[in-house]
Design brief:
The chain is an all-alpha fold. The chain has 9 helices and no strands.
Length: 232
């Protein structure tokens, strides 16, 4: 199947990318990250909670944006597009964005206690679509501006807001019902990323652009669902 998407030699390209990705992940998260977060001061709940939040913030806000933007927005899209067959570039872009989203799936599934029911399935689909469209939008931003720092800063900003909001949500599970401005901003960002990613994808790859519209519409319908849920 991949022979219909990539030119000859794609196997070496994907293998080299996989090696670079695994080495980078090991260096960043297994060595540098672990040395920075250390261990909890004690096994009391307060110290465990503080350590978990420290690890989450450093991982999601400090390391993830830099690592993921270099590995995906810069390296994955660039290298894979160089090996794509003529006319298959749109498929390659969707492939990379999907890969970015799927890599986050195990962490989301773990946070949900490895439970599968209609609600968790809905949340898993929503989270992966948000990441898919972020990766897609980040690629077009980088392509237009030519500066990876722009997408890194955007990634920092989004992850910081989401992390801080989630910390408060852990302390007060029903905070989403209080019209928190951060939650509204997060949802508008997700809608904006889905709309812009779909638009620029359609402009650049019109043969495949229409296929993304139902998925982009999901983010808007999700927002409307939550708005209706709050009013009922």
């Amino acid at each position: 199947m991949l022979d219909q998407i990539f030119i000859k030699g794609w196997e070496i390209n994907i293998l080299l990318y996989g090696v670079v990705f695994l080495l980078g992940q090991y260096l960043v998260y297994k060595i540098i990250f672990r040395s920075l977060i250390g261990s909890p001061k004690s096994f009391y709940w307060g110290d465990i909670k503080h350590w978990n939040r420290k690890a989450s913030f450093i991982g999601a806000v400090i390391f993830a944006p830099l690592f993921e933007e270099v590995m995906f927005t810069y390296l994955a899209y660039t290298t894979f597009l160089q090996y794509s067959l003529a006319g298959m570039e749109g498929v390659v872009v969707v492939f990379v964005a999907s890969f970015f989203a799927i890599l986050h799936f195990p962490g989301d599934f773990r946070q949900m206690g490895y439970r599968l029911n209609p609600w968790t399935i809905y949340l898993l689909i929503r989270f992966q679509l948000h990441r898919f469209f972020f990766s897609l939008a980040a690629f077009f931003i980088y392509q237009s501006w030519g500066y990876l720092l722009v997408t890194i800063c955007l990634h920092y900003f989004i992850n910081a807001i989401v992390s801080l909001y989630n910390f408060d949500l852990e302390d007060e599970p029903y905070a989403f019902e209080k019209n928190d401005g951060r939650l509204l901003l997060i949802r508008f960002i997700n809608i904006g990323l889905a709309a812009s990613g779909t638009y620029f994808f359609f402009i650049q790859y019109p043969d495949y652009g229409l296929y993304l519209i139902p998925f982009a519409a999901f983010t808007l319908l999700d927002y409307l669902y939550w708005q209706l849920k709050k009013t009922n």
